[in-house]
Design brief:
This protein is of the alpha/beta class. 37% of the residues lie in helices and 18% in strands.
């Protein structure tokens, strides 16, 4: 019989494990389910749930957003991008467009899309028009882009790729010696593509319990129960708590296409810096569709810097689980979903936006300043 969320919650309480511990998730979808379902409020008080590097829009380097904007503004092209990339702000003088949305308002032909199929349709509808697909995302987004190219994209479609792998950011945290978490909830969707084995290093190299979870509260609570039990019993392993979807080896065809079309390279993460072997670049065989080869680069070397969040924005710390969203001084004050300052408040997968949408209105930083605890 399948256990419900209530069953898993009772099982967690029955573990009777009262050591303080922090469980990190690395998926915006996980953080949304946790926040919307209010799981933090019902778990035992010793368990902290930490949102980690699970938002591809948040970590897309400013230089890539800037490059896409400049390309759209200065070349005779249609630029297409996933909708939430359009509002991501970059640091430029006030007189210049600060986002793709503002570049569109300034006259650039920029269109939101929901999938690579939309990009193909737009390119096929006007074969004489050059279409550039600004493709930013993690493995689950990058795999369909690879499939689009492997299966044959229109000649007039070019890809400005900003793909990233999720696991190297977790590896970087663990290698730092101060990861800030005791157990990991691994992302179900990424594991569907890449295979759960991608997360074995968390246990094998770092002896930290890990469990792959789906996106419903019962699946997340099952994964939390697994890692808590592993900690209690001091027997650590990688548990697949999403077996109905996540299979050993992931999706072999998707992985084959990604390997055919792209190579893994060192890559910049916004506000974090270069993480080794954490990004994708198009292979030479697909140079004919590479926007970076077709157009002169609009990537400005001065933008390739680590401290590239807007002034006052703590998004990089939020992404790395170093602070909670409402510990940023701008949360809910200068920065809201209607007037976002940093990318974490723009994207549906950004922890700041998720927390705000789930009703977290108190700003802990402000509270601390006034001597008020929001405990
Ligand atoms: S609340 Fe806004 S400014 Fe603060 S970290 Fe989040 S996105 Fe950045």
């Amino acid at each position: 019989m399948n256990r419900t969320a209530t069953d898993w919650l009772a099982a967690i309480r029955n573990l009777d494990y009262d050591r303080p511990l922090r469980i990190m998730n690395v998926c915006g979808g996980h953080e949304r389910s946790i926040s919307v379902a209010g799981l933090r409020a019902v778990l035992p008080g010793n368990v902290e749930l930490v949102p980690g590097p699970g938002c591809p829009v948040c970590i897309c380097p400013e230089e890539d957003v800037y490059e896409a904007m400049q390309l759209a503004l200065h070349e005779d092209v249609t630029l297409v991008a996933f909708g939430d990339m359009l509002r991501v702000p970059v640091n430029v003088p006030k007189r210049e467009p600060r986002s793709l949305e503002q570049a569109k308002a300034a006259g650039a032909d920029i269109r939101p899309i929901a999938s690579p199929i939309d990009a193909v349709r737009i390119a096929e509808a006007d074969p004489d028009r050059t279409v550039v697909f600004f493709a930013a995302g993690f493995e689950t987004t990058t795999a369909p882009v690879a499939a689009m190219l492997a299966e044959g994209a229109p000649d007039n479609l070019f890809v400005l790729l900003s793909g990233r792998l999720t696991w190297p950011a977790v590896a970087m945290l663990l290698d730092s010696g101060t990861p800030g978490f005791d157990a990991l909830i691994a992302p179900g969707h990424v594991s569907t593509v890449m295979g759960p084995e991608e997360w074995e290093f968390v246990v094998d190299k770092h002896d930290i319990p890990a469990a792959v979870a789906g996106f419903t509260p019962d699946s997340l609570l099952a994964a939390m129960h697994s890692v808590l039990r592993q900690l209690r019993d001091n027997r650590h392993f990688l548990d697949n708590c999403y077996p109905q979807v996540v299979r050993p080896g992931g999706n072999p065809e998707a992985r084959r296409q990604m390997n055919e079309v792209m190579e893994v390279v060192d890559a910049n993460w916004r506000g974090i810096g270069i993480i080794p072997q954490s990004g994708y670049a198009l292979r030479e065989a697909y140079a004919a569709h590479d926007a970076r080869k077709r157009f002169r680069s609009y990537a400005d070397a001065s933008r390739k810097r680590v401290g590239e969040m807007p002034p006052g924005c703590d998004c990089a710390k939020v992404v790395l689980g170093k602070i909670y969203p409402n510990q940023c001084r701008l949360y809910g004050a200068a920065c809201t979903p209607r007037k976002p300052i940093g990318p974490c408040m723009v994207s549906d997968e950004g922890a700041c936006r998720i927390w705000w949408s789930a009703g977290h209105r108190e700003n802990e930083w402000e509270g601390r300043k006034k001597g008020v605890s929001h405990g």
